[in-house]
Each structure stands twice: as structure tokens, then as C-alpha cells.
Amino acid sequence: TSMRHSAIRQETRHRIGLVGAGIATSLSPLLHEHEAAALGLRDYRYDLIDLDRSDTPVERTGEVVRDAIAAGYTGLNVTHPCKQVVLDVLDELSPGARAIGAVNTVVVANRTLIGHNTDGSGFLAALRAQLPQAPLNRVLLLGAGGAGSAVAHALAEAGVAELVVADADAARAAQVGARVQVAHSTDVRAVGVDEVAGVLAGCDGVVNATPIGMTGFAGSPVDAAALHPGLWAADVVYRPIRTEFLAAASALGCPVLDGGHMLVAQAADTFALLTGVQPDRARMRAHLGDLLSAQRLSA
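Given the sequence above, the corresponding C-alpha cells read:
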């Protein structure tokens, strides 16, 4: 029966949409469709549902999601700036999504919309796979937005003893800190961005969850002079794959985790949630490398 079951499953229609604003350059459709083809899922489509293209305000994300499901989408990814607004329209949240307070994957089960967050699980998987020996006594997290919140919970789950959160918006940093403290027994404190250099001296690791360093947002979130060889460094930015921040850390001999690992891990977790099929993560990582080098050549 397993043969028959897999044959049935492979004929399943998977129509996935990514809801967000300004997402024309997203690599998700290519990553997902390439992996689906490699797995033999013939009827798999991944579309962009870009609010900017239809001039839809972010507040109407819920309507967009409902319309997409009504139009036949079997599952959705949700990205910036819709990850929190979408909560209002969902029927259920996974424990992870509830703790983080943001959703990036919507699973449809018997007409019920269930929100998940694979940013957190993706970062945790990437950290465990790439930096298994990373010391976790005190870690500094830069950025307390949607990505930062997910990473904060992942770091707590990874076993960080003391988490320090810095964000230009002090209230946002404090809020994420409070949520993490409630969900985990981690010791969390929020600091101002002006305190970052001083805090780094006593840290084991530092994670950038801000857009600084991304193509179009030049620079580094941390003064290179504040980095030291005792640190490990991670970035959620994956374009470029080697940010100014990670390059400075590497130059000091610090172990680094690039944003491509988190991107692939969250895409793989999402793929499994939406299809019930486990993707090949190494193949997805290799494909991401191909996509990024092709983009560099054409840039």
C-alpha cells in the first residue's frame, strides 16, 4: 500500500503563495519549485502575492490570505511586513508561532488556517548543524523585529544562558525580551544600540537580525573594532551571503553562520509542513548557491 500511497501523494496539487510587500526578487519560488521537481512532485506551484503590485495596504493582509485560500491556494508563506498582521485571520497557532508572535507559514487543514513560524526552527536547525560547538553563555542579538523575535526564541531554545537584545526601538527590544523570558527560563535583558560595543566584550556570540548589510542597506550593524576572536557570529541576511559583518568576524578567525543556512532551513521546514514530504536540505543549499552566483554574474 505504501507504493500506492506515495503515488497518490505525488499527484496532490500543491499551490503555494508568498504574501508580502516588495517581494519581486524573492528566491523562494525558485528554491521551492526546484526541490519539488527533484522530489518528483509534479503538480507544485509557488507564486508571489505581492501587496505592492496590487497597491494593497498591509492592514488588508487577512483579506488577501482569505481570498488566496478561496482561490485554491493549498498553503501560504508570509513575509515582511505581514507576519504579525496575519495573526488576526488565523484559526490556530503552533506553540512556536504563538510564543514568537509572528507567522511565516499558513497550513490549511480541513478549512482551518493554522499559523506556524519556521524562521525560529530554521535558525535553530542552522545553528545546530553549522556551529554545534558554539558556546552559549552570553549572546547578543541585534534586531527585535519579526526575524529578531524568531531568532531570540531559537537562541533560548538552543540553551543560551543570558540573551542580550539590542534594537533601535528600545520598547520593541524590551517586549521581545519579556516574551522570551516568559516562554523559556533564559535570562534576558534589553540594551540600547549605543551599548552594543561594551556588551560585546563579554559575549560568546552575536547575531545580526537587522537588514543592515543587505544589498541596498550598506554597512555593518556592529563596529568591527568591537568584535573579538572569542566570538562566533551569525547573520540572517543572505544577499550578499558574505556580509561586511561576517567578513570582519571571519578576518578575526571567528566561526560564522551565514544567512543562507537559515533561509534554506526555514524553506525546508515550510516545504515539509505544506507538502508532508521531507526535502533534501543539502540539495536546497547547493541550489541556493547556484541562484546567488547566477545573480552576482548578472548584477
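The radius of gyration is 19 Å. Try to locate this feature in the C-alpha cell string yourself.
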